[in-house]
Amino acid sequence: xxxxxxxxxxxxxxxxxxxxxxxxxxxxxxxxxxxxxxxxxxxxxxxxxxxxxxxxxxxxxxxxxxxxxxxxxxxxxxxxxxxxxxxxxxxxxxxxxxxxxxxxxxxxxxxxxxxxxxxx
Length: 120
Hints:
Blueprint: H1 2-17, H2 22-37, H3 45-48, H4 72-75, H5 78-81, H6 83-87, H7 99-106, H8 112-115
Helix pairs in contact: 2-7
């Protein structure tokens, strides 16, 4: 019962302030990550991300390397906080063939395990 009340309160506040939810923000971050990795935006990928260079990885082949963050400020940067979510994308459910296909598959994945600590 209490969880339902908190959820309703959160939804009400988000609507009143005209903000997007954390889930929507997470989706936007994943979409931007895709655009950067596949060169759909005019940003040098190596300035933001480093592809994981291991020849064998579990999951999808576009895993990103995550440097250890010694600062709590750095830990909340886009390029750091999105990596865990990106690397955990299930290879059997995510379609990397096009941006439209990627968007469709991302909308169907449950990211609830990441939402609690995503906003830092």
